[in-house]
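Hey team,

Filing this mostly as a record. A colleague (T.K.) asked me to run one chain through the structure pipeline before their review meeting, and I want the input and output archived in the tracker in case anyone asks later how it was produced. No errors, nothing strange. Just documentation.

Input sequence:
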Amino acid sequence: MLERKLVVVTGKGGVGKTTIACALGLAAAERGLRTIVVELGEQRRLPALLADASRRENGRSPKESDAGEETSLGEHLWSVTIDPDRALLEWLQALGGRVPGRVLAGSGTFQYFAAAAPGAKELVSMVKIWELTRGDERWRRRAGRYDLVVLDAPATGHALGLLRSPRTFGAIARVGPIFGQVERVRELLEDERQSGYLAVAQASDMAIGETLDLRDGLRSQLDVELDAAIVNATLPQRFDEPELQRIARLNGNGAIAHSASLTARTVHERARIQHNQIARLRRRGVTAHTVPFVFTPALDLQDVRRIGRRLAERV
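Output structure:
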């Protein structure tokens, strides 16, 4: 997965997508790959996540960044939050040659495009993500060169709309520079050698169901496969049946023994349900990798690095 140009990380909201995207970025950077992790819209969770983790580890925080600014987070690792308005001006300048972007942005054609075209911001964001993958062929001469772009995508439904936007606009704009650009973005997304897709889920019925919906949506709407599901915060199966029977016999040995027995049974049942959901994914043909639950109040930087190393060995 880390040998591709683009890795898209999506899934149900609240399951740890940003942590997984950050972990993959750290793992790639450790391997010497110049890596940028991309967020969209108003999201700037990645610098905050690394700032909190770094502050707990060594008392230092990465520099705050503005939307659209590519910010260094450490050796070989950057982040950016795509501002659609700024990205659109860059795109228009690239399409218009020497004509200033603000002139193009003030034209009647652009105003109509921005107001009338459904999903215009999604398309602009995807064009900018494509541009980040271009290495030495980026729009600005002194722009950074990246080996890998990790997209911390929105939740499943919005992510599919974002990824579908080049096909949508390709059907509208059949000629001209916009069509040519849209086709290049579509080719990137639909080339399995260049782009990979990861779902992040927790082992609950709803989250696993959404992962299967994502797999089906990628197939039907982009004609690509989900590479793997990352099942986050999984509990270990600590006890076998004979051990559970021995634990059950502790019930009559006082309040503390009863409480310990009840806790063991409860945790075992939660783990059993989780592993049943993981098996459900695998029965449906989805490759599933697990990330163990971290028994700490908050993740530190080493926790996130360990998650990334674990995933890098598997994906």
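Quick notes for T.K.: The chain has one domain: 6-237+286-314. The CA atoms of residues 12 and 155 lie 5 Å apart.
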